Amino acid sequence: MTAPIWDDGAWLGFRPLEGERSADVCVVGLGGSGLAAVHELLELGQRVIGIDAGTIAGGAAGRNGGFLLAGPADFHHDAVRQVGRDRAVALYQRTLREMDRMTSETPDAIRREGSLRVAESDAEREDCRAQLAAMHDDGLPASWYQGLEGEGLLIPTDGVFQPMRRCHARAGHAAMRGAQLFEGTAATRIAGSRVETPTGVVHCSAVIVAIDGRLEQVLPELVGRVRTARLQMLATMPTSEMRTPYAVYSRYGYEYWQQLPDGAVVLGGMRDLGGEREWTDVAEPSEPVQSLLEAHLRTRLGVNAPITHRWAGVVGYTENGLPVFDEVRPGVWAIGGYSGTGNVVGSICGRAVAQQIVRGHAEDRALFTG
User: Deepest in the core among 39, 68, 134, 263, taking most CB within 10 A?
Assistant: First the structure.
């Protein structure tokens, strides 16, 4: 089946938007970052309407690997080289605080038992040691690890989560607080004072476009800054063939897996080996990536349990690994392009863009711009 393992079929959903409605801010895209923006806008006393072309968490927010990782897309020592030490440390510490917030908001959806970066070569092992040294220099928690999963880096503050469960819980809470949320409602035209859909119109004072994959299609101004890619995954029946409590990633993050509490193994990756065909907005599993994932499951992980789910999601990548956080049209703000690691950074961006719109500034914006 092509539905993610996170979809338990229990979500009842919201109806599509019909007719004309008014709000202070319209949020386009109701994944993790969009819902973070909705909640922050409510905190700031705003009237909020949120729309999604599909379903809540139907995009990247509910079709990812379920990892909660501190820091930006780059490993810490690479981030230091890319954006400078002070900014890299500030980014890392800010994501740690956001992970604590997320855990307190939805504790039943999150497990914080740590992550492993496992080396698949001598060169990667040395890179892991370089990352560890940089993290120790900056007072960030990490230690060397050697175990059944392999050898590399253990980061105790990271974790895993059920992304769709978290988004559904946050959407339900937002609706209870007064947000008007609509599914099956695509934005066909976006301006700072008006969002048009096939069956209605939202009149507003500002718009937040909180989309990761396909962001450059919704806002063509971002062509060249963001590029959409497909990430593919599979999952198995519960098994005792392996046992790990960690979020595990290897080969510089190109492969990643976790094991659910019931024993099911969730595995993703191989995007680079899929070649140019993976730079696509088609969110469907395909060859050869699925065959490569299955081979990895059987040989590297030693798991022979039957595969029950195969799925894909599309996400946005930027050249420097930092997300888009910009006013791209008067009154229209865009956040997205999280380069495959948007679960935490997207939440920060969602709250910050709401503050930027209402207050005229947001302290966290400086982490991602300039």
Answer: 68
Q: How far is the C-alpha of 163 from the C-alpha of 254, rounded, in Å?
A: 20
Per residue in 152-187, is it b (16+ CB within 10 Å) or e — as a string? bbbbebbbbbbbbbbbbbbbebbeeeebbbbbbbbb
Tokens linked to 160? 């895993």
Amino acid in position 9: G
Close Cβ partners of 228 (under 8 Å, ≥ 6 residues apart) = 213, 214, 215, 216, 217, 279, 280, 281, 314, 315, 316, 317
What is the rounded distance in angstroms from the CA atom of residue 9 to the CA atom of residue 195? 30
Owner of token pair 């799925």: 311
66 and 6 in contact (C-beta within 8 Å)?
Answer: yes
- Residue by residue, pLDDT tens for the chain (370 residues) are 689 999 999 899 999 999 999 999 999 999 999 999 999 999 999 999 999 999 999 999 999 999 999 999 999 999 999 999 999 999 999 999 999 999 999 999 999 999 999 999 999 999 999 999 999 999 999 999 999 999 999 999 999 999 999 999 999 999 999 999 999 999 999 999 999 999 999 999 999 999 999 999 999 999 999 999 999 999 999 999 999 999 999 999 999 999 999 999 999 999 999 999 999 999 999 999 999 999 999 999 999 999 999 999 999 999 988 899 999 999 999 999 999 989 999 999 999 999 999 999 999 999 988 6
Report all structural domains of the chain as residue ranges with CATH numbers, in order of start. 19-63+163-225+320-367 (3.50.50.60), 227-316 (3.30.9.10)
Residue 191 forms beta bridges with which residues?
A: 194
Length reported for the chain: 370
Whether the bond between 245 and the residue before it is cis, its omega within 30 degrees of 0, is no
Nearest in space to 119 (alpha carbons), one of 300, 339, 340: 300
Q: Could you list the beta-strand ranges (E) of 265-347.
A: 265-269, 307-317, 324-329, 332-336
